Amino acid sequence: MNKNIVLIGMPGCGKSTLSKIMAKRLNKPVIDMDDYIESHEEKTIKEMFDISEAFFRDVESKYSILLGELNSHIIATGGGIVKRKENITNLKKNSVIVFINRPVDDIVGDIDVRTRPLLSKGVEAVYSLYNERIHLYKGYCDIEINNVGEIQKVADLIIEKVQLYKVENNQ
Ligand SMILES: Nc1ncnc2c1ncn2[C@@H]1O[C@H](COP(=O)(O)OP(=O)(O)OP(=O)(O)O)[C@@H](O)[C@H]1O
Ligand SMILES: O=C(O)C1=C[C@@H](O)[C@@H](O)[C@H](O)C1
Ligand SMILES: [Mg+2]
């Protein structure tokens, strides 16, 4: 069975962009979990958060079970997937988990040119979110990749490291 490659990391760390590049290179289907949830639930993430964060987190957990059943997919998760350990347990059943660690200064540099809910809380909120979550991302991943430099090369590095991980772990 061919495991999924699941990307975790902060909002703006490059999960969506990298997952698309990797899917193309490996000729595998890609799922962006935030988009997948919105289209299957017929609600935007904002609408779900407006009900309550717990409502969204419950939905997100439900999809971590469903997507954990797949194989051979590239999956970009939402930034908060690590908030519930069960999500990682569900995904890890059949996936290699890759933490995309991008310098917060680079994330912040990109945020003001894009529409991200985080922006409304200011730049400081991004730093505190990183400090809050860094131990979770590091603790839950199988592989950590520093997203610095040319993004195509970072995608190549992930593919290389995942292949090595699979060989080393007989997968
Ligand atoms: N190594 C890099 N070099 C240049 N730009 C980068 C790099 N990594 C990410 N980016 C840029 O950062 C932005 C955020 O990337 P992306 O949308 O893929 O992040 P994300 O992790 O999916 O974020 P979110 O969790 O908010 O969906 C994009 O404009 C992307 O092109
Ligand atoms: O970091 C987070 O908590 C989130 C990140 C996004 O990908 C979305 O999943 C949602 O906006 C929550
Ligand atoms: Mg994304």
Kindly describe this structure:
The protein is of the alpha/beta class. It has a single domain, classed as Rossmann fold. It has eight helices and five strands. The chain has helices at about 15-25, 35-40, 45-50, 55-70, 85-90, 105-110, 125-140, 150-170, and strands spanning about 5-10, 30, 75, 95-100, 145. A five-stranded parallel beta sheet has the order 2-3-1-4-5, sandwiched between helices. Helix 1 (about 15-25) packs across helix 8, helix 3 crosses helix 4 (about 55-70) and helix 4 runs parallel beside helix 5 (about 85-90). The relative contact order is 0.21. The model has no long low-confidence stretch (mean pLDDT about 95). Bound molecules: adenosine-5'-triphosphate, (3R,4S,5R)-3,4,5-trihydroxycyclohex-1-ENE-1-carboxylic acid and magnesium ion (MG).
Total of DSSP H or I helical runs spanning 4+ residues: 8
Biggest sheet, strands in spatial order? 2-3-1-4-5
The arrangement of helices and strands along the chain is EHEHHHEHEHHEH
CATH topology: Rossmann fold
What distance lies between the first and last C-alpha atoms, to the nearest angstrom? 8 Å
Please tell me what the overall shape is: globular
Which small compounds were modeled alongside the protein?
adenosine-5'-triphosphate, (3R,4S,5R)-3,4,5-trihydroxycyclohex-1-ENE-1-carboxylic acid, magnesium ion
The CATH architecture can be named as: 3-Layer(aba) Sandwich
Largest sheet: 5 strands, parallel
What Rg do the Cα atoms give? 15 Å
Please give the domain count: 1
Function: Catalyzes the specific phosphorylation of the 3-hydroxyl group of shikimic acid using ATP as a cosubstrate.
Catalytic activity: shikimate + ATP = 3-phosphoshikimate + ADP + H(+)
Protein name: Shikimate kinase
Binding site for substrate: 34, 57, 79, 133
